[in-house]
Amino acid sequence: MTAAIIDGKAFAEALRARLAEKAASFEAATGRKAGLAVVLVGEDPASQVYVRSKGKQTVACGMASFEHKLPADASEAELLAVVAALNADPAVDGILVQLPLPGHMDEAKVISTIDPDKDVDGFHVINVGRLSTGMPGFVPCTPLGCIMLLKDRLGSLSGLDAVVIGRSNIVGKPMAQLLLAESCTVTVAHSRTRNLEEVVRRADIVVAAVGRPEMVKGSWIKPGATVIDVGINRVPAAEEGKTRLVGDVDFASAAEVAGAITPVPGGVGPMTIAVLLRNALVAAHRNAGVALDEAAI
Ligand code: NAD
């Protein structure tokens, strides 16, 4: 069997087009644009690229983008003051503090100072609690993007066996919560899991969020399963001195067995920023008391 390719790039484009429409109607209703603020501390090149891309896509969707850059040696108190100002700013609906922060800053403390109703990354403990208790809040962008792709592909996920490989706070754990909320039978595998191959082989849905290039082989996959590869790993390319991106799943062998699979790049990756914009627009509607059918976007 050759798996269907789940095209996250196309899905993200369509999502952004829906968001642009809703952003325009929000502006017409309120007289202001929905606003997303991104705070970047230091000069990490990957973070700079990511923040630039977020800013561009925010503006392209018809929303206001606010960027705050602090030097790598800024104090934690300076960062907390920026977050406090953004919490109080009515033009700002969503706040994202780009991680990782420099070592002298306490990430958990910084995130805990973001207004939970502007926490569009969904990392604040209040939003973690809301997700695990089924209350409306904000869900981390990458796992929410994965669920959107899965529901688009499979319709109802109810009763399916799902295995999430990885238990990080930003991907694995919220992914497991979301699958549980869709009535899947969920197994969370991690670095101490015994017989990982056997665990994966039981699953109708496999979500790999490990950070190990091409670790999950086609021979581990149940025939017809849906495979969501969250991993982004840079490895040496065939051409001397060049690199290429691969996922946590060995795409070539897995695509021979799976029913559907996300490629890397072009699968989960493009969803993350699109979902961030979605969360910011949802925040704007909630904060301004403007109705929005959140399930429809
Ligand atoms: P992490 O390092 O925080 O967590 C990795 C998890 O994998 C851990 O829970 C660990 O227990 C588990 N693990 C490690 N080795 C294992 C093994 N041999 N067997 C089973 N489990 C093992 O990573 P993360 O932040 O969750 O990211 C995971 C991957 O997803 C990375 O490649 C990252 O780049 C990628 N990622 C992609 C996006 C995106 O937008 N597509 C977003 C976030 C993360």
Written overview of the protein:
With 297 residues, the protein is an alpha/beta fold. It has two domains: 89 residues, Rossmann fold, CATH 3.40.50.10860; 130 residues, NAD(P)-binding Rossmann-like Domain (Rossmann fold, 3-Layer(aba) Sandwich), CATH 3.40.50. Helix content is 41%, strand content 16%. The chain has ten helices and eleven strands. The strands form three sheets. It has a six-stranded parallel β-sheet with strand order 1-11-8-7-5-6. Strand 5, helix 7 and strand 6 form a beta-alpha-beta unit. Helix 1 runs parallel beside helix 10, helix 6 runs parallel beside helix 7 and helix 6 crosses helix 10. The longest helix has 23 residues. It is globular, with a radius of gyration of 19 Å. It binds nicotinamide-adenine-dinucleotide (NAD). Nicotinamide-adenine-dinucleotide binds next to helix 10.
User: By CATH's scheme, which homologous superfamily of the largest domain applies?
Assistant: NAD(P)-binding Rossmann-like Domain
The amount of beta strand, in percent, is 15-25%
Q: Indicate the radius of gyration in whole angstroms.
A: 19 Å
Low-confidence stretches: none
- The CATH topology of the largest domain turns out to be Rossmann fold
Task: Provide the CATH architecture of the largest domain.
Answer: 3-Layer(aba) Sandwich
Measure the end-to-end span: 32 Å
Helix tally equals 10
Tell the overall outline. Answer: globular
- How much is the average pLDDT? 97
**The level-1 CATH class of the largest domain:** Alpha Beta
Tell me the count of domains: 2
The share of residues in helices is 40-55%
Q: Total strand count, please? A: 11
What small molecules are bound in this structure? nicotinamide-adenine-dinucleotide
